[in-house]
Amino acid sequence: MTAEPKILEPVTPEEAAVFSRLKLDALPRHVAVIMDGNGRWARQRSLGERIEGHRAGTEGVRAATRTAAQLRMTALTLYAFSTENWSRPRREVAALMSLLESFLIKEIPELMENNVRLVASGRLEELPASARNKLAHTMETTAGNDGLVLNLALSYGGRQEIVDACRRLMRQAAAGEADPETLTPQGFAGSLYQPGLPDPELLIRTSGEQRISNFLLWQIAYTEFVYLPVLWPEFRRIHFLEALEAYQNRERRFGGVESVRP
Questions:
Q1: How confident is the model over 1-7, as a mean pLDDT?
Q2: Of 19, 34, 155, 209, which has fewest CB within 10 angstroms of its CB?
Q3: Are 20 and 64 spatial neighbours (Cβ–Cβ below 8 Å)?
Q4: Residue 257 has what pLDDT?
């Protein structure tokens, strides 16, 4: 049985100050992240190719995953590769797939140490066979972990997810297994890629950009957004804690009279 990861312990004075202000009994269960700024980070350092930014960004993935696991969150969804990313130069796409494969294997000890279960969302059949195989291996290896669920959005698009859900429901209706007249929002959500995960309460986007970029369009109906100026390769635990503090300073509204403060 996998041991629970240690509880988060602030290291720097800055972390300690933010951590002391957090209400640990009111953290979001599910945080989603748009990891933006890898290309700009590489250009600012004259590194030549965007892939160097993606490679450096793996440290941000590690920091976010550790922090979420040590705070006993339920889920962390990372926007790793969108359906639109397939249109990037072939050389860059190949390098990204190679980086993904390397990450999936190298991070297994880290995932096991932090009791993290890996899952994935997207049109996974579009990934190269070698990437699919390594993804399946890491998901199988971590399947027994019962802590944080790390959901990698791969070959993912929010509109595509909704279309795929509609196709599943249409096939069920055509087979006489479902009645369209009885479909509810909850029933529709059950046909999404990861129906077992709660909707994210918080979405973080780095690099200062303020777009959704076709990410979790169904799930973020009442999600709070926090935009951080930091580029993703520079993302560390302090930035995650700052985003959580910003979230807890919001009054969450759900279209009714009542509001909820985290």
A1: 67
A2: 209
A3: no
A4: 47
